[in-house]
Amino acid sequence: MRSTTDVAVVGGGIIGAAIAWRLKAHGVTVTVFDPEPGSGATRAAAGMLAPVTELHYGEERLLRLNLASASRYPEFVAELEAATGADVGYRRTGTVVAAWDGADLAALRDLARLHASLGLSSELLTARELRSLEPSVAAGLPGGLYAGDDHAVDPRRLHEALLAGATVERQAVVAVGAGSVTLAGGDVVSAATVVVAAGAHSARIAGVPAMELRPVKGQTLRLRSSRPVVDHVLRGSVRGVPVYLVPRDGGELVVGATSEEAGYDDRPRAGAVYDLMRDAQQLLPAVVEMELLEVSTGLRPATPDNVPIIGAVAPGMVVATGHYRNGVLLAPITADAVTELVLHGRMLDEVSA
Predict the structure, then answer these.
(1) Is the peptide bond before 257 cis (omega within 30 degrees of 0)?
(2) Which of 89, 213, 244, 271 is most buried, judged by most C-beta within 10 A?
(3) Are 277 and 312 in contact, with CB atoms under 8 Å apart?
């Protein structure tokens, strides 16, 4: 044993960073272990906070969790920005979903009916209304849908603020146990509680109980122009393949995202760049004139039902992973749930429901 900490958080992505920040705010001594904090799925994430437009049929349980976390975001951001003086790029401008053709528009009508049946707020758009909201969309798009409560945040700026002032050990954890973590170099660190939040790699750490978790590769592009080309998050489905465009400050635009069952291969793929640009151009022709800044690749941690795994799995061990495509959105409620477990030994109702 070379050192001790109250809580050892294994994984320094957006989930691990949010947990560490929330625990530290409650006076708990926390150490985050990650050789490259925020270098995986967090870095590739676009940062959509989209419980409404991310809704898939049959995912009502996940929807409840997403909505609960989205409701926490304004206070979460305000508290973080007040504590750190950072601007995390929280944009409350809503999301526009563009229909690519008539069949897509019919699918959006069905989706709007589902939203209404679940008490969600969205409104269908005519072609003229779509162009009024986003004048730069491609000519001939037949209409769309507007979700005013689906927002966005800059995950990289959010992550940096969450880790500001945190104690971070830039080493990999190879094994965990009740009251300790073992580092790649052989050192052992004792901790009253170990929180495993290593994303898609969580199940690969020795000592973590078996769980149904698989990596899903996602690639995003970062573009830039001299002026913003969209005001809202813009989403759509081109020939059945989803694509989204998320504006950032300074004329940047994030285009995403692929969804590839490629195991733990996180290498960028040239075909993915082509596919993303081709589909993005169908919705927003201006993307082909923008500067290509970066291709980012990350491994999303997915579960069979897309609901994350959050809870105590052994005495002194908590797991928080499996957030798949909603990691940034679910950061506030995951941090609150783990903090409630560590401090009081109970689970939040919204998470256990």
Answers:
(1) yes
(2) 244
(3) no
- Residue 36 amino acid letter: E
- pLDDT tens per residue, range 51-101: 999 998 889 999 999 999 999 999 999 999 999 999 999 999 999 999 999
Coil, strand or helix: which one is 17?
helix
Residue 82 in any domain: the answer is no
> Are residues 220 and 167 part of one domain?
no
Helices (H) and strands (E) in the chain, counts: 9, 18
- Angle subtended at Cα 100 by Cα 98 and Cα 106, rounded to the nearest 5 degrees: 85
Bridge partners, residue 207, by sequence: none
Residue 192 lies in a domain: yes
Which structural domain, as residue segments, surrounds residue 171? Answer: 3-49+157-212+304-352
DSSP-based three-state secondary structure for 246:
strand
For residues 164 and 268, give the distance between their C-alpha atoms in angstroms, rounded to a whole number: 29
**Residue 221 · residue 276 · CB < 8 Å:** yes
- CA 353 to CA 343: how far, in whole Å? 20
Pair 226, 251: CB distance under 8 Å: yes
Phi and psi at residue 17, in whole multiples of 5°?
A: -65, -40
User: Do 330 and 69 meet the contact criterion of CB atoms below 8 Å apart?
Assistant: yes
For residue 61, is it within any domain? no
Amino acid at 49: L
User: How many CB atoms are closer than 10 A to CB 322?
Assistant: 28
- Sign of the CA dihedral running 78, 84, 85, 86: negative
What is the pLDDT at residue 74? 98
